[in-house]
Amino acid sequence: MRPTSVLYRQALARPHQVAFHVTSTDIAGAPLTVDSLGAPLLRDIPFSKGSVTASMTNRVTRTATLTVTDDWYPRTPSSAFAPEAAVIRISAGLRYGDGTEETFRVFTGRVYDVTRSEDGTVTVQCDDFAADVIGCQLEQIWTVRNRGSVLAEIRALIRDALPSAAFTVGDAVDAPVPELNWDKDRGQALDQLAQALGARWYALGDGSFTVQRLPYTIGTPSVTLTDGPGGMISAARISRSRDGVANSVTVVSERTDGTNPVRSTSRNTASGSPTRYGDRFGRVSQVINVQTPLTQAEAKTLSLAQLGASIGLTEQWDVSCVPDYSLEPGDALRYIVSGTGTNDRLMGDQILDRITYPLDTTTAQSLAGRGPVPPDTLT
Fold this sequence. Notes:
By secondary structure, the protein is mainly beta. The protein has 4 domains: 6-126; 133-213, Baseplate protein-like domains (Phage tail protein beta-alpha-beta fold, 3-Layer(bab) Sandwich), CATH 3.55.50.10; 223-241 and 314-371, no CATH class; 248-312. Helix content is 14%, strand content 35%. The protein has 5 helices and 19 strands. The protein is flat, with a radius of gyration of 23 Å. It starts with 5 loop residues before the first helix and ends in an 8-residue tail after the last strand. It comes from Streptomyces scopuliridis.
């Protein structure tokens, strides 16, 4: 969760005004909007509706959709929404009574598709900078350039595709890189390098890239959301499923020097665990083939991390609520909602996997997360 003022959190639970800003530049930051005389000028672009979706399960984590009027349809390669050049930045937040604003950058990325309908409505689709990186496939075999640092190798692969890329320090713990190479798929190389750290790489709302550990466990929730009077939740759907749950995880790393592969298996053998291997849940195994674990210990760390994800996150909440533009994928939230009884309440601690930021004043925010099954309901 991005830092906010005390006033921001207080205002969310009360009637408030929202603020949205959409601007367009080229990749170097030169404005693609103009003033009344046609001179380049960075200014807000009006739009009728839109949204930004951020999903931890996609390589291109953030996508944006905007609806604008016919005069914004790109007629030249340097138009504000021209796929040839346009980089769109979107900020959203609150506007206070004194006219000041507290906003957060929720999207930075390129225009990828513009469609004009017969009624003159123009729909703009945008992807974050990860699309640039994935779209630049490896033209030659990529060999490791930074043997001592996975993070440095990730930065090198990204900057090779996007020289202007910026980086925000994440919480992944660095490690050495084995002597590896990749052919063609830059995204796969980045995925495997991040996976070796029990992490993933992705673009943030400000356009910078980060490498964050996969949030398999939930610490102290940063925010508690409730329904009812004074609450922010308007609807909540809760589900549980066996899909994606494994109680045995094996990591296999094939060696490029012809030696035997590194192999490590971790199983859930915890007494009393509802998904204990070979108990009532059964035996569900997952095999992960990667290149990156350098040692048996690293393979064991990865298999334990993946096992922790597979056995401990088994309840999913889909929530509609008052938009909070400070939320980020990976945040930990606590939900408390009314049950079917007269006085009972349901509680869930969740890690956010997907967020939709509405860019209008009437649409609720959509949050999707996962978390452990609570031992009981609140009463």
